[in-house]
What does this fold into?
Amino acid sequence: MPEKEIKKEGLLDLYYRMVLIRRFEERVNELYMQGLIPSTLHLYIGQEAVAVGVCADLKDSDYLLSTHRPHGHAIAKGVDIKDIMAELYGKATGCCKGKGGSMHVGNMKVGMLPAIAIVGGNVPIAAGCALAQKMQKDGGVTVCFSGDGASNEGAWHESLNAAAIYDLPVVFITENNLYAASTPFHLTFKIESVADRSCAYGLPGVVVDGNDVLAVHEAASKAIVRARKGEGPTLLECKTYRQCGHSRSDPRGYRTREEEQEWLKKDPIPRFEVWLKQNGKADEEELTELREHVEREIDAAIEFAESSPLPEPADVYTDVFME
Ligand SMILES: Cc1ncc(C[n+]2csc(CCOP(=O)(O)OP(=O)(O)O)c2C)c(N)n1
Ligand SMILES: [Mg+2]
It folds into this structure.
């Protein structure tokens, strides 16, 4: 693993955030299976190193655009897990007052636009946010997460081209988890990497091991610095794997159990744990303490969501249409 100069506290924070995302989703999945959470879920389990590595250097004033798989992005950007949990329960205290649900979590106070579930639909909006930041000269950066599948949408190409010609302060992150729902990467791409497309639009294309949080962090930091300096956008492709099905009730017949086992060996969390210990950055006691802290935080979030009220019927049209 490459090591960007990160102090011990920062390294432990990377670990803590990845575990928080993982355990949040595992607990949410249990609640969903018990019928306590309505709607649907797209779990981010296995991809945590991408969100955490990218967001570590962002400020609340920087923007983040997310997808139908947004819990990890939201937690990494600093959206309070109580607000996310309440949103998943459809409660009035949720980050979208219970009207968005899983696929639209976000909070502008920490720079996360409510997530957009139209595949590729967030990418032009990211370019627009970055154009605003450039015009306002506020030094802000936009990061935009999308999947391998999204990079076959026309809007993705138009947005990268526009961002490149205007040198916009945006980092496009492709989370290549090898599948777009049930469609494998190799059936929809004649090239090895999505990042190879960057040369068509004149921006740097970088490929990184998306299950290595330090590698992601190092690559994302460089792209963010470049964007802040006014040098333009970067396309950062993180090669990763979603460990669960695409969404609820996915029997995963389009991939083999052997392939899944191979990727489990590269699970970003145990991998980073080993690195932390081998490099004398943390011992088992410290990591256990962090994990216990995470459980308590999630317990509190569930309690908050369960004890919160549902939205009032009279508020059904509030915040829905532009006044
Ligand atoms: C424009 C559009 N087409 C289809 C869908 C249905 N859909 C939701 S997620 C998804 C797959 C997206 O794959 P990818 O971009 O690789 O993201 P991943 O699910 O792997 O995170 C599809 C087809 C949608 N939401 N929007
Ligand atoms: Mg995908």
